[in-house]
Structures are given as C-alpha cells and as structure tokens.
Amino acid sequence: MGVAEKIKEIEEEMRRTQKNKATEYHxxxxxxxxxxxxxxxxxxxxxxxxxxxxxxxxxxxxxxARIALVGFPSVGKSTLLSKITKTKSExxxxxxxxxTAIPGVMEYGGAEIQILDLPGIIEGASEGKGRGRQVISAxxxxxxxxxxxxxxxxxxxxxxxxxxxxxxxxxxNKQPPNIYLKAKKTGGVKITFMAASxxxxxxxxxxxxxxxxxxxxxxxxxxxxxxxxxFIDVINAQHRRYIPCLYVYNKIDCISLPYLDQLAREPHTxxxxxxxxxxxxxxIDEAWKELNLLRIYTKRKGVAPDFSEAxxxxxxxxxxxxxxxxxxxxxxxxxxxxxxxxxxxxxxxRVGLSHPVADEDVVSIVTK
Length: 368
Ligand SMILES: Nc1nc2c(ncn2[C@@H]2O[C@H](COP(=O)(O)OP(=O)(O)OP(=O)(O)O)[C@@H](O)[C@H]2O)c(=O)[nH]1
Ligand SMILES: [K+]
Ligand SMILES: [Mg+2]
Known about the structure:
Shape: globular
Largest sheet: 6 strands, mixed
Bound molecules: guanosine-5'-triphosphate, potassium ion, magnesium ion
Structural class: alpha/beta
Order of helices and strands: HHEHEEHEHEEEHEHEEHEHEEHEEE
Number of strands: 16
CATH class of the largest domain: Alpha Beta
Number of helices: 10
C-alpha cells in the first residue's frame, strides 16, 4: 500500500471513530500516524524535481518580505497583483489562468515587499491535485499568506483552504506550541508538566512518541492548554511553518452591505473590490501590520530624513538593532540617538541603545 492510500485509510478510520473520552487516546495515536505519513509525502521523491513535495516554484526571494497570494481559482489574485505592483499577471474569467508563480514588487513607505501571484488551488491540493503541492510549497516560504477569497462564494471555501494548508504543516496565525522535546540516547521517556495539563497525559505522550520510534526523550509541557495536535507539531517541528495570514475578501461589489459589514469584522480580515478600486489601501496597510515589521528612516544631522528608503527591522527591535542594520561596527562609536516619531515621548527624544523603536520612526545616530 502506498503512503497516499495509508493516509486515506487513517482519515477514514478517524471519520468513523466517535469523539469522546474513551476514544481520545486512540484518536491521538491516529493523528500522530497521519502527521508522520504526511511528512513522508512531503519528502522529495527520487527523480521527481518539479512536482516533488519539497520544491516550490523557482522564484528567488527579494526585498524585505514575501507575501504569497493563495486562493481558489478566479478569486482575483492576479487582478490584485496587477493593481499593487508594476507587474502584469494575466487576468481572465476562467479558472487556472495563472499557471506559474508570478513575482511583483510592492513599494510600501520605503519598504520593498515581494508579492507572489500563484495558480489557484483546489480541494485536494495538499495531496498533489493540480499544481497544489507546488503552490503550497511556495506559500510555505512566505512571510505572510494573503488568503484571497471570493466574497460571493460560500464561507466553507475558507475552511477548505485552511485544511489544505494545515495538511502540509502550515500553521496560520499561531505561535509554536510551548512544549520542549529532546530525543535522548538512553533513559526512557521523562515527562514534566509545568502545570496540570488539560488535554495531555503521560500515556498519550509516550504512545505518540512510540509510534515515531522515540523511546528515550525529555518532554516539558509548559502550556496547560496544549493538546495532542500541538505535541505532534512539536515532534514534526522541521515540517511546520508558523505564518501570519490575512484573509482578504474580494468582489465586495457583489455582496450586500450587512454581509460586507459582518466579514469586515472578522479577525485578521480585510475586504476589497479590485473592480471598483475599493479597500485596496486598507488591505495593504493590514498586510503590513500582519508582517510585524517596522520601517525606520534614518536622518543625518542638518539634512531632512530620506523617506524613500526604509531600514526594516522586526517588531520589538531597539536602537541597537537599528545600528546593527546600518553597520556592523556602528555601535562601537555610538554616543546617543535622536528619535522622532511614535516611540518618542517628546521630539526629538535623546535615547540609548536599549530604546524600543516604532514603525515610521526617524532616527539619527550620533557617534563619538
Ligand atoms: N465583480 C468583481 N470581479 C472581479 C473583481 N476582481 C477580479 N474580478 C474578476 O474575477 C475574474 C478572475 O480574476 P483573476 O485575477 O484572473 O483571478 P485569479 O484568482 O488570479 O484566477 P486564477 O489565476 O485562475 O487562479 C476576472 O474576470 C476578474 O475581472 C472584483 O473586485 N469584483
Ligand atoms: K482566473
Ligand atoms: Mg491568476
């Protein structure tokens, strides 16, 4: 029996099994097996270069971040790319207009963001239907997934897409589980719970580990809410990607106002109409927020700041990180910095290396 058939069989058994306290352990083991088989499916097959699990489209990363446009056919991914970048990607009313990854560059306040237009995917994509596997592999390399949805279609489209991404190890808007796992050579399995766990116990953990042939390990469960899915994610950490996701509903020109209002209130969601040029800027602003990056503009003494080029740092960065981005040895000569912007209490504020910066701050470094 091939891996794909084994997966089908387990999925079937899980569907047949009623969910209750008595079957919890059995279901947990099945989930572990399923994740193990899916990981096998993602390993590149010998002699299989293009459709192989691991490989996406051959587009090199560029700029400060990459956003992947993922969605069913004809939801308007290429229309959006053509609107927000200088790249033109073919747009048409029929499904699978886009057949490969089309990169474009979006300028955003001095930041350069690569936008990847991708072929539409369909249910079964994670098992390799259509270009599904390649599309998902490309999505896995992105810093943000923009899930483009057709506001006129059923809400289930979103759940279906999420399940496809989930199946290949993408976790949307989620932090890695707070569980420590280290395989050992000897000593058996040692499990410590930092607090009484609501969903995990020793039997479940050792049972799943045994299926992965891990017989010696140290496990530390730090989160009382962690469940067996989280534990399986930790075992399969090398195949997991935790990626922020912005749900973008397009074609709002075709839906009612109350429904539009309802969609717009969902978390991590933005709504737009490429046709009427509505909401596009909000989509871009929201995407920038989800990326968790900060734009810092540098200023030389006596000269106006240069807003055409931003230094990009991660959220929670400090002046120290900004210095590192400017030059490797700048900190050695650092005296103080002047900051204008949201992070400054008064402008300009004189600060040290540990001062946390905010998006769109203007920073001037004064050296000894
Ligand atoms: N009503 C309406 N139609 C739109 C909107 N945006 C795009 N469309 C139409 O939707 C159709 C599909 O657009 P595409 O951009 O080709 O969609 P896609 O997601 O790239 O499709 P594939 O590449 O085939 O996966 C085209 O006929 C567009 O003109 C919109 O905001 N409102
Ligand atoms: K299309
Ligand atoms: Mg397209």
